[in-house]
Structure formats: C-alpha cells, structure tokens
Amino acid sequence: MPEGGPAPKAFATEAFASLRPLFAPRTVAIVGASSDPSRIGGRPIAAMRAAGFTGTLLPVNPNRAEIQGLPAYPAISALPFVPEAAIVALPAALAEAAVTELAALGVGALVLFSAGFAEVGEAGAAAQARVAALARAAGMRLLGPNTLGLFDARIGWFATFTASLDSFRPLPGRIGIASQSGAFGTHLFAAAAGRGLGTPVCVTTGNEADVTLGEAIGWLAADPGIDVIAVSAEGIRKPEAFLAALAAARALRKPVVILKVGKSRLGAGAARSHTAAIAGDDRVFSAVLEEEGALRASSAEQLLDFAYAATPRIYPAANTLGVLTVSGGAGVLIADEAESLGLPMPPLPAAAQAALKSALPFAAPANPVDCTAQVFNEPALIGRFAEAMVAEGGYRSVLAFFSQTGGSPTIAPGLRAALAAVRARFPDRLYALSVIAPPERVRDYEADGFLVFPEPARAVAALDAMGRLGAAFAAAPAPRLPLPAVTLPPAAPNEAQAKRLLADAGIAVVPERVTTTADEAAAAAAALGYPVVMKLLSPDILHKTEIGGVLLGLASEAAVRDGYAALLSRARAAGAARLDGVIVAREIKGGVECILGIKRDPLFGPVALFGLGGIFVEIQGDVVLHRCPFDEATARKMIGAVRGVPLLQGARGRKPADIPALARMLSRLSRFAAAAGERLSAIDLNPVLVLPEGEGAFAADALIEIGN
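User: That's the sequence. What structure does it adopt?
Assistant: Structure tokens below.
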C-alpha cells in the first residue's frame, strides 16, 4: 500500500474505530467509475479532485483506460494493491458480484450506492442479506446499500453523489450530520450551509445492511473535531449501538440533536393493557432520548437551531432566563414560550429593579425587563440594564429583543459595544439576541459571542434546550441496581396470581383473598374487616367494571353473600366459560388513584409508565415513561414530572400522599420487569391507591401479560 495521504484521526474512544476505513480512507477504488462528473459514478471522483483529496483514487471501468485524468483499471482483479475503501456505483444486478470480489480482496470498507435491495421487496431483501453476509464474513464495513454516501470535507473525502454539492460547499465548523435518508441528510447539509453553519462531516446510512445510524453517531462522538451531532432518523436498528453512541456523546459533553419521523402508536391488538395503549412507540423513543441526554427536535429548522445554539459549548445546568426587550409585546411572547417549556424566569431582585426604575422611570424592570425604545436615545442605558440583569439577576441564559433596530447601521455599533462589555465580564452565560439584520451585521454579533435568532420564540426554545443538555451532562451516571429473582409462570396469571408474584418482589398490594363459595367470601370479609370490595376472577373477563364485575362498599355479611350470588350471575350472563373465583379485598378509601405499568418495547426492552388516573388515564394521557430498571430517586422525578402531581402533593387542602412509598413501588416494579426477561409483555397496576404520607401505596388491581 502506498505511503502518504491523510493521517487517521485520533479518537477519544476506540469503540467505533472499525469505521476508520469508511470515514478516513487513504486509498479508494471507485467501481463503476464514470468520466462524466455529473453521473453517479463520476461525481465522487470530481468532488474529491476538486476538494484536494490527498489519498489515492483507483477508478474501475472495463471500457476506459483513463477517467477524469486518472488511470483506470478494467476490473477489480486488476487493481495494483488492496484499497482501504471502495465505492460501488453499479446497478443492483451487478453490485453483488462486485461486493464478492472486494470482500475476497480484503477491502476494509465499502460504500454501496446501488439501489434495488431491501427497499424494493423480498428478492431485494434476500440480495441485501447476501451482501451483508459477505461483508461480515470478510470483516468489511458496509455503508448502504441505497445510500447517498458520506463526506468529510476536512480531508477532501467525498464518497457521495449528492447534487447538493453543485450549489453548496461544506463550511468549516464542528457540526456533524448523520441521517438514514440520503436526500434528507444532504438537505440538512444544504440548509445548514445556507445559514452559515459549518457541517464538515455528513453520513447517510441508507438501508443499513451493516453500518447503522447509531454507529455513525458513535463515530462523530469520538471525532475530536466534532462538537455537535445533528441526526435525522426514521427507525433504529441495533439499539445497543444507538444507546452506546448516545452514552459516548454524553460522556464527552457532545450534544446529539435528533429529528425523528414516523410517529406511530401500537396497534389495537395491544390495547388489552392500558400501559401498552398509552405508551406508544414514539413516546418511548422520546423518553429514551431524554434519559440519554439527547435532544429531540420537532422540525428541520429546530434541529439546526439547537445545533447552532450548542456551538458556543455553554450548557447552563441550572438554567434561568433573563429577558431584556424594547417591546412589551415581545416580552410577553417570550414569557409565554418560556412558561410552556418550563424554563424559569425569576424576577430581578427588588433592589435591582428599583435602581433601574430610578434610571428610567417608565421602564418595567421585573423580568422581562422592558427598557423601551428610550435606550436608543440613551445608549449608556443598554449596558446598565444588561449588566444589572446578568450581575444581579444571576440568569444563566440571557435573551435580548432588539428586532430590526439591532440591525441599524447607526445603532448597532453602540449596541454591540455595550453588550460585548457585559459578555466580557460574564463569559460563562449563554447569550442570544433576537435581531433582524443584514447577514454581515448578524455575523458581527456572532463574532462577539452572541447567538442570533430572527424570531424570539425560536431563541427561547434553543436556550431551554441548552439548559436541558447542561442538566443531563451534570447528572451522575445511573447506578447499577440489584434485581430480584423472578420466574414467570408458563401462561399469563390471573389477577390474584399476578399480585402474589409482584408481592414476592416487594410490591405492596391491597390485602385480599380468593374465594370459591359464599361461605368463604363471608369468612374472608370478616377476617379482612368491613367494608370490602368483591371482584370476579376470570381470564375470560378482561374489563370487569363494564359488566358490573366489581362491587364496592360491602359492609355486612348479608351484603357479601348477596354480592357473591350477583357476581356469579353476571359472569354467566357475560359468557365467562372459566371462573377462578371471587376476590374479596379490603376497601381502601382516601387514596389518590395512580397507574403504574410496564410495556416491553421491541427496541429498548421494558419501559415503565407512571400516571394519575384510574379508568380515565388513556384519555388524559398525563404519563411519564422510563426504561427499566431505575432507582427510587428516578422514580420520584417521574412522579414529579406529571402535570397532575399537585394532587399527590396536597392540593386544595388535601393531605400530601405517600410519595416515598409510591416511588418505592415504581422502582421495584421496574426492577421486577428488568429481571423477568423477554417473555414479559406488559404489566398494569391500575389503580394504585396512594394513601396519605406515611400510610403507604397499594396496588388494587394487577394484570401481567406474558408472550411466547
């Protein structure tokens, strides 16, 4: 192999080092090379020659002795040495033979442009499986098929045929792009370039026969020249690699911002469990991103907003927002957006407000601090107001709204000087301006260290996102938790059996007994203490309340006996072929109803759900999700994250509920689910009755679903 070419990159971690021949090769064969720089087989050669790629390019084409000024080779077998990487730009019918030859030759990495594989049907999927097996057996990393390729402009490596390079060139910068979709990934590159954002590395993974989106994220996380990773996702293959990549990025304090399409919920077949019906796939994905310290964007514009906001590498862990504005209306808009996101905007201290009021009597100096347009008549006031906000308000993020006046050639110089002086004194804060100005004026503000957004609500969302990153980066790693010994039965247990199984794992359930006669029911009620609840126990009756299969408030032996007869009659009327008995349980009053559940996600394993609710929880949708297992501290955070948490904290004169007992139950349920293995499909504890502080929390109903 010839000497020279770009040197391999240094890595912060070696976890994704097998991708080096793909991302930083020094010798490259182009199979299906074209003399026409506008064709798929010609574009990579033209782009690399224009970018000054210093490695060796080896075009392969049986019909040309020379291609774009380079010696060409008639076949793969004619190559003078084994290249580190290869690009295949052939029809699918010819690609498989080329991959076979390249694998046998010992090529380290392959970019397979060819379409016509798994995306077109069963025959294509079979061909893709064969190609993947060939690469795997040879230890050759494969990007694609059906990929638009990748580029690293820093070394002139352009293994791509994207037409976006006809209009845009990658700008210097420290944002990397990873996308499953080639067209959308390069759309992001072009949009970023149009905004002046530097994205020197872009990789599109296509069908992911081998290299996945997670591995691409991992490579970018390990790259010391990349600080921010912008991702477009459609689905996740190899979830372990995806999670490992997010963990690597988080450990290195590198933001990962993901735009995921395909928001779907589980089908009606899963609706037997409240948990499965509520915890749709997309909500699980969002929960996983939050746990791993990654951001989820709602649009391509927001994806680039968040990536842009991360470029100063300031992530305020205990984020608060101070707002300086020349417009009262804009201040209200900003405050509304901050409140909707949960970004605190505490007021300035009273003494600071009084001082600003004395300087400008008609100012509104609380927060937002409305300094009015008068500051443009008295430029010294701008610095005074801004410094008071930062020095005395202590805000970790600061947003100033100046609109088009910030772009005025007569006003901007003084404004820049005043703001730059404040930033120089407090460089650890995150500063943003909402300004409408010519591009050169925006670049001036950015050069001074300010983020610039034309629309203030976008700025608020970006500043809030940076605070969430800071909190994630500052958080301690999750502890390793001991798991209980769990042996699931061969088939789904009935309610009583489910409760016994959970009770063995330390999950408190309402005291109850299973009875098969009226005499047993009466004896159970006497032992448990009146009043009692009675419920049908039958695998044929999934929703007992709908047929009157639950009786409440039975306060005497006669009521219990009559209730027993009524329940049997209702079971027969409902067509229940199997009846395991009647549950008699102590009636617990005065508790707050909650739902706790588990759903096994096909990608991320068991996921716990918490919400308030009883039977209306599906309608309210006020739930929080987290992968299992987790500790009691995490469980308490989940409980505090639901909108209805004031009901547990003692709203409207109620006694505070026993949140510690509830958190203990939720954590133990998560550990039970993690220990139960892949046969566990779902668990519902609904309702869980949470009594006043110190009195405990008890599961009143339980459903465990078991798969094959």
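The domain at 511-586 is CATH 3.30.1490.20 (Dna Ligase; domain 1).
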